[in-house]
Amino acid sequence: MSVTWGNEPPSVGEYGELRRLAGLSRRAPNAAAKGLEGSLHVVTARERARLVGMGRVVGDGGCFAQIVDIAVDPEFRRQGIGTGILERLIAWAEAELPASCDLSLIADPGSFELYKRFGFEIRTGMVRHPG
């Protein structure tokens, strides 16, 4: 397998399909388009032209930024793609965001160990879910 790394946002269709394959919640196409457009930074992993992984940094770019949408197609898991995405997102954040910018993420319990390896700490908080 030969993965090609990129920084162009995926199409709305690719984004929706990868989220579905990765078991993430569905986003309305208009919301997905707006979200992708508003990204501070995007990392994609493609096998040939097929999107097999991605992640984004969103936020105000000064005080707060958040890593979101880390998703890997189940066929391509356990091949270092998730780690590669996270490495690239963090490298970008360290180079481009102010040192005082808070970089956070929300993780599923099964992925805590990956994020802890990159210096993230588990903290409690509250999130408002639409509905």
Automatic annotation (TrEMBL):
Matching PROSITE patterns: GNAT (PS51186)
One family name in Pfam for this protein: Acetyltransf_1
Q: Which SUPFAM superfamilies match?
A: Acyl-CoA N-acyltransferases (Nat) (SSF55729)
Arranged from A to Z, the UniProt key words for this protein are: Acyltransferase, Transferase
A single GO cellular-component term on record = cytoplasm
N-acetyltransferase domain mapped to chain residues: 1-131
GO molecular function terms noted in the UniProt entry:
N-acetyltransferase activity
Q: Sorted alphabetically, which PANTHER family does this protein's record hold?
A: ACYL-COA N-ACYLTRANSFERASE (PTHR43626), GCN5-RELATED N-ACETYLTRANSFERASE 2, CHLOROPLASTIC (PTHR43626:SF4)
Name of the protein this chain belongs to? GNAT family acetyltransferase
What organism does the UniProt record list as the source? Roseivivax halodurans JCM 10272
